[in-house]
Write a structure and sequence with these properties.
Layout (H helix, E strand, L loop, with lengths): L5 E5 L3 H13 L4 E4 L2 H6 L7 E6 L7 H10 L6 E5 L4 H9 L4 E4 L4 H11 L4 H6 L3 H9 L3 H11 L4 H8 L3 H14 L5 H10 L14
Parallel strand pairs: 1-2, 1-3, 3-4, 4-5
Helix pairs in contact: 8-9, 8-10, 9-10
């Protein structure tokens, strides 16, 4: 593994920081840990090849505020945000602020490893995930009007229940449309779908706090 790549871990809970640091070190990456956004910001600027994994819910300055600050200061870093169940709308907002990916907790170790490899440009899958703009538009055009409604609800971070109420459908029917959308868009994950929506210039609302899907 290249020594130029360093993974920064930002979380206000010490046990989480240590657990993530140990896990990521087993992937072969050097790790630096930070207990607060202020601590992380104090270490700037970071060299090319460094990346960040941050929690969203933190005191004083949360992950979303941190991303905004990095953009404002023109010192962005490739970032993965970790979100608890029910924070999907915040994670979507984080991607609008420049986060590359988000992962819902709890997660499989391999999912985090793949995300880091994509983040550091070490995975061929990362290059494949950068959908061609026209290709995304073509896939969007294949959606039916109802599927497009569901698509827009998904990328806004809304729950199946919320989408069902807005579209006057049953949650079960929304699940079927959701599966159709993922199939037609050739996408398996919510972060991937959000990236495709942003690529296509689809207006992404902030959504309401997401419920269980």
């Amino acid at each position: 593994m290249s020594n130029d790549i360093v993974v920064h871990i930002l979380d206000d809970e010490e046990s989480v920081r240590k657990s993530l640091a140990f896990l990521i070190s087993t992937f072969g990456y050097p790790v630096r840990i930070h207990g607060s956004a202020a601590d992380f910001l104090a270490g700037r600027p970071y060299p090319l090849g460094h990346c960040l994994i941050t929690d969203l819910q933190m005191p004083e300055m949360d992950g979303l505020q941190l991303l905004r600050q990095l953009r404002k200061d023109e010192t962005p870093l490739p970032t993965i945000v970790l979100t608890g169940h029910g924070d999907v709308s915040m994670a979507v907002a984080a991607m609008k602020e420049g986060a590359v990916d988000f992962i819902e907790k709890p997660f499989e170790d391999t999912l985090l490893k793949d995300a880091i490899e994509a983040l550091t440009g070490k995975s061929r899958a990362a290059a494949a995930s950068d959908r061609d703009h026209q290709d995304v538009l073509d896939r969007l055009s294949s959606l039916s009007p109802r599927e497009r409604q569901v698509f827009e609800g998904i990328v806004a971070g809304k729950s199946n229940k919320s989408i069902a109420m807005e579209c006057e459908l049953s949650p079960r029917t929304v699940e079927v449309y959701r599966a159709n959308v993922m199939g037609k868009m050739h996408c398996r994950t919510l972060p991937g779908l959000v990236r495709m929506a942003m690529n296509a210039g689809v207006e992404i609302g902030d959504g309401a706090a997401s419920e269980a899907h």
